[in-house]
């Protein structure tokens, strides 16, 4: 296998007519890392992947792979390989010829390309099926063949467009483990587009959260989980509640904010001005139900929903300007003292569990 390459995306934009799909993003993906581009539909993640691959032209900016600017290179000259969501296997060819197809296009003679294709199928534990056609395989098996076909060119980076979206939940989890194993084994750079937070957290060394054509945060999974950079990241990852308001005072490293309903809350922070809009995040699993409420570290809310999840229970509460303030408690704690929909409950949290969220400059 060839060595992995760092991918450097420098001020890259993609404009379709009057629509800006990607707005001047800059990102360095370290060589040999597993990077997930994560975000809702239409956030620009697939356009970004396709620009790295060369399947989409760049409106402005540059992409560098290793030491080479590849902005104007055709896909075959970039040292990347792309695995498409649909797998795009040829139905009339057996697996050996499917996997060897790109080598055939390069004029590699039959014996050599077949030997290499068999080697790739072995890597995917699919060599026993070498003579079969794609229609005789399950979805998970087809995916392995598509991976073998992408990897046969010895790419420096493998680009994956929602590779697990067509699989059932159990197979998804198995294939996730397989992708992680492969990436570690081959040591090449993987860039993987997904809209699943769980998938990104399970796979990535670097999670890049995108929204509306921009990068909201690029960090290791644990940082994105524990210290979301913006209100969007906090909400999208689903593990923080967000309260929004205006700053009413700043003193001694504490910011006091007021929500439109009139309650005030404190958060550690500096460098902000009175009157500025502000968002704070509170971890869903750190909220204390029926805790003693310091008015600036909690509020009284009304329970709007209760969801049993096995090991935990998710309680949704309305209050402090939020319709869906969420508390995650253990099943043991919940059933020791359950709450009912419509019940008023005091909620509280520790100052250490409140995060001052940033905002993207317009």
In short:
This protein is of the alpha+beta class.
Summary keywords:
362 residues; alpha+beta; Rossmann fold; OB fold (Dihydrolipoamide Acetyltransferase, E2P); 25% helix; elongated
Folded structure, characterized:
- The chain is of the alpha+beta class and 362 residues long.
- It has 2 domains: 7-226, 3-Layer(aba) Sandwich (Rossmann fold), CATH 3.40.50.300; 231-357, OB fold (Dihydrolipoamide Acetyltransferase, E2P).
- Helices cover 25% and strands 36% of the residues.
- The protein has helices at 45-53, 95-105, 110-123, 139-151, 169-186, 197-203, 221-226, 231-237, 331-336; strands at 7-16, 19-29, 34-38, 60-65, 68-69, 80-83, 157-161, 189-194, 206-211, 214-219, 240-251, 254-258, 264-268, 277-283, 288-289, 298-308, 312-319, 322-330, 344-348, 354-357.
- It has a 6-stranded mixed beta sheet with strand order 6-7-8-3-9-10, with helices on both faces. A 5-stranded antiparallel beta sheet has the order 13-12-11-14-20.
- β17 (312-319) and β18 (322-330) form a beta hairpin.
- α2 (95-105) packs across α3 and α2 packs parallel to α4.
- The longest helix is centred in the middle third of the chain and has 18 residues, at 169-186.
- The radius of gyration is 24 Å and the shape is elongated.
- The two termini are 43 Å apart.
